[in-house]
Fold these 4 entries.
Entry 1:
Amino acid sequence: MDQNVKREPVTQKAEELLQAFKKGAEFTQELLKENERLRFQLLHYQQGRADAADLPGLQAELAGLRNRVQELEAEKQAILQRIAQVEAENLDFANRYVEIEAENNSLANLYIATYQLHSTLDLREVLRIITEILINLIGAEEFALLLLDEKSMTLQAVAAEGLAPEDMPAFGLNQTGPGQVAHSGQSFFVDDISTHCAAPDRPLACIPLKIKDRVIGVIAIYKLLLQKSRFAEIDFELFSLLAGHAATAVFAAKLYSESERKLSTIQSFLDLLTK
């Protein structure tokens, strides 16, 4: 009995100690949880302070990005301008190509026409070919071809289009218009076709027919076709080529015609003698 009485206080002490340990463990767990919560809040607070401390850096980075965006926008605008410039250049090249193609066709046609000019010694055929060139290649609607009569030293119309050759006056070398061009040997073109009032002595253009420095006639243009409002650059080249080739063809045809007449006269004289 005495032993049992002694054991009860020991057991009671052990249970009280065990309860104390349990409460200590629970308190320790609560402390650990509270510590974890406080550590999380501290970390969050420190992160917030770090973000606040790095705000100037973020602002500087944002400013750099804005500057880069502006640079890229400027590069974009420069590229767009260059693209527009290239497109304009391409359009200009395309238009120039069309012009060159038209010039090549005109020069090819002129080559064929000049070949035809030199393929005959018939003066009327030569004048007909010159007329076709002026209509088809130059776009002339009214014009006259005047040749120099060396006896009277006047220009006289031998062919015309849209005009009657017999209605054209003769021009002396000291007169205005065709006579002045024949005297100087220099081509004449009006600056503004739309305001020019053409007359026999006031053509739109007048081109001398020359063999070296010798003028044998002129081409006087008084009106262009409706679809042609001005003289183009190619026209001046065509005039230059036409003047030389037409002059040579006309001169050769005249010489041939005169020689044929002389030969016919001599032959007729010989026939009379033999008879």
Entry 2:
Amino acid sequence: MTLLVNIEGIDGSGKGTQAARLQARLLAQGCRTQLVSFPRYRETHFGHKVADFLNGRFGQLNEVNPFLASLLYAGDRFESKGWLTEAIANHDVVIFDRYVPSNMAHQASKLDGVERTELITWIEQLEFGVYGLPRPDLCVLLDIPPQVAQQLIARKAPRDYTQQAADLQESDSTHLERTRQVYLELARTQPGWNSVSCVRGEELRTADEIEAEIWGLVQPLLPVYSD
């Protein structure tokens, strides 16, 4: 059985860095590993529209109904399903740099109470139920305060989906904080989640420290590749 590991967190939390580090570590153990990053901005029809959304083409964050926005992200994964199925069939571990929970957290952060719960449930049923996407075995939340995350976002190299220094979500500190709270709720209430803090006190932990903690969560699930 292929192990599916999902790395999640708000923008600027270091998901891409840690997903790549985990892949390198698994490859060094002789494990056939594929890293998958969503959204696939350039590879899918829906991914192109996600990029448009993040660049403000359809309005500001509070101007686009989150139920409708979530369809773009879900469509990107559904369009990728065949490619993803092949990747899972040919590898021991597939690492997701953002997956279905990212859709839940970012879109549900725009709602409260019963409406928030309704949207999370709806996305879960849409992506895992209607679209039949595989569920991850382990979700790792990289938890970071938004003010620290935005400092790290400012250091990012240019991205191919935007000409801006930060997209609509990255530049909105309120959105990042509300998204963080939804992520923490998911980590508390859904099975298979673990939270890794990216800060110690007010200091940012090193990438090596965070990598080691993530490895401690993944390694027990890989008895064949354990030291």
Entry 3:
Amino acid sequence: MKVLFMGTGPFAVPSLNAIHDSDHELVGLVTRPAPTNLRRKQKPPKNPMRDAAESLGLRVWDPRDVNSSEGVEILSSVAADLLVVCDYGQILSNEALATTPLGGINLHGSLLPKYRGAAPVHWAIYNGDLETGVTVIHMTPRLDGGPILERVTVTIESTETMPQLEARLSNLGRSCVLSAMLQLEDWDGTSLIGELQDASQVSKAPRLTKEQGQIQWEQSAEQIKNQVRAFQPWPGSYTWLLQEAQEPLRLVLGDTRVGDALGGSPGQVHVGEGHRLWVETGAGGLEILQLQPAGKRMMLAADFLRGYAPAADARMNSIQ
């Protein structure tokens, strides 16, 4: 099968390599271009898929709009049998999908129809889900809405962060993509293929914003721990250390642990024996094991306490 891959982010790299190492013919990569509004001396963001494709000696195209006449012409010109799409960054139109006889398949980092959208791994951890997985669908112009060809479920570990889970799911996607391609080899191009998604089970996984990283200490310790795990590396989970007669200190939380309530209102800081740092929440206490003060590196709580020594009136809250 002649395959054109479409992807930009790191989630797609293992699947690109898997197709390259298979008996299929991988003719190149379509990826998103670097932004044009960079400030002076600002470096363009990394494009893991471009790097991977170039290391394999593949041709790379990066149209601004893949659904424009220029973009559709690129897709048509390679005469591929199938588009394989993962972590690309743009929804394909009917015209774009029609450039290949078998249309396109998409690898998505959730158990569709749950968590359609740009940040499925983040929201699965944030919401405290016990399991997630990967799904390969036959594509339609509707976001993540096509019939399911392959789906595999995994357990989310209680301490797993977003980058850790995403890497695990990314590798899991390799075999799913190849299995979905095998199904399409014998497809007649018109009959129904795969399992239709249950519209009543759809949930959204929208792109994150910087503001969502601010910690609300009225939430439970378990919810805040999940947020810290989910919002790595961006936007991070941040708060401010507030003390009388001192400037607020912005902190990004690293590893945390849930414990019993220690008394006081949400946001109240407790320093325990052995240089342990706790914060009261809306339900339970949250031990902060790692944190990063503004302008500093991520450090252990014990090192932070030696350098900053919170006063008795210290609280963590929003800066307002």
Entry 4:
Amino acid sequence: MTERTVNHPVHGAGLGLRRALMGPLAGRPTPQVDFWEVAPENWIGVGGRYGRWFRQMTERHPFICHGLSLSIGGPTPLDEAFLRRLKRFLHEHGIRCYSEHLSYCSDDGHLYDLLPIPFTEEAVRYVSARIRRVQDILEQRIAMENVSYYTVAPGSEMSEIDFINAVLEEADCDLLLDVNNIYVNSVNHRYDAEAFLNALPGERIVYIHVAGHYYEADDLIVDTHGADVIDPVWALLEKAYARFGVIPTLLERDFNLPPLDELLQEVDMIARLQHKWEENTRDALRRQG
């Protein structure tokens, strides 16, 4: 097990907050949800009923933000006006962590998809400089998420794992570990998911995502966040806990939202696995003592 020195911004099991949950959550206690996550683009500048509800939620619960539009690997300049608005938003709501995707989504306009960055030394330097600039503007560390992708970008010179590790080191930023994306890519690109997981720097992982996906074919999985988490992804999450220790973990569900009770059952599953590995760690320490 790798010794962790990262300061986790939250603890336990979390859930992505969607506006569709506003009604089901009204007057409903959710003690199994230790923290919530939102996309800041969906809430910056929102007023009225939704704005009041969001303010009430952030005053009562720990929140983190996972961005959609930073386009850290894109060819156009960073949107620094957006970053300044984001900085105010993070401060106003006491947001504990900001993360984004290690990909790009714009080129003179938003492309509405997350596209892979070429795995090259030049791209490592380019992306890392942009991450450092974001951290300077926000005056805080950010976390980059390993993403799912369906074709290797033209001109790639290194493996995905080497590219991710090089960016994390060069930018000196943190990692949002998405275990579902590792599983999806391991099927689509034919690599060993556990070996990939073990090669990541555990000391940089601030929290974890789990999600569901769609089987297009035996050799093609699409990362949709629109289905239940499957057993191999739960198993990979357990391997992450075994490798790095218990890390805060969030359930992502963006589409085909089931009833709230079903979502909370998956959050409960995260909590059970965390409790299991915390007990395993305590047992191991007792045996060593």
